[in-house]
């Protein structure tokens, strides 16, 4: 198993992600695509304990529910001190929002700041990934 060189900062485990913060409200309007974007997503690399920063994009088509934005912001912030790999964070957001909304369509994309000369983009899509 590889070990990070230098200092390793402490971080929380995934149990600190607050999926119970997510709230929804009923929607009975016309079919539409809803997009939420923020460049304020952050979590912690569980290898080094260093922060990972990302642009987060949420795209969905609601069936009966819309996510309440304040609850979404609190949920996103709950990742801030959690040690979670980039790909797992994207997967976790996808699964939590899918449970909250049961949407017709959902896509989660994270684009992480460059690290070691590599830019990481992770995408979960309900059509492509089921």
Explain this structure.
The chain has 130 residues and is α+β, with helices and mostly antiparallel strands. It contains two helices and six strands. Strands 2-3-5-6 form a four-stranded antiparallel β-sheet, with helices on one face. Strands 1-4 form a two-stranded antiparallel sheet. The mean pLDDT is 93.
List keywords for this structure.
130 residues; alpha+beta; four-stranded antiparallel sheet; two-stranded antiparallel ribbon
Largest beta-sheet characterization: 4 strands, antiparallel
The stretches of 5 or more residues where confidence is low (pLDDT under 50) are none
Helix percent reads 10-25%
Structural class: alpha+beta
Rg from alpha-carbon coordinates:
15 Å
- The backbone outline, from C-alpha atoms, is elongated
- The total of helices stands at 2
N-to-C order of helices and strands: EEEEHHEE
How much of the sequence lies in strands comes to 25-35%
Arithmetic mean pLDDT: 93
The N- to C-terminal Cα distance equals: 32 Å
Query: Number of DSSP strands?
Result: 6
Q: How are the strands ordered across the major sheet?
A: 2-3-5-6
Record the SSE blueprint.
Elements (H helix, E strand, L loop, with lengths): L23 E3 L7 E11 L6 E11 L3 E3 L1 H9 L8 H16 L3 E8 L8 E5 L5
Antiparallel strand pairs: 1-4, 2-3, 3-5, 5-6
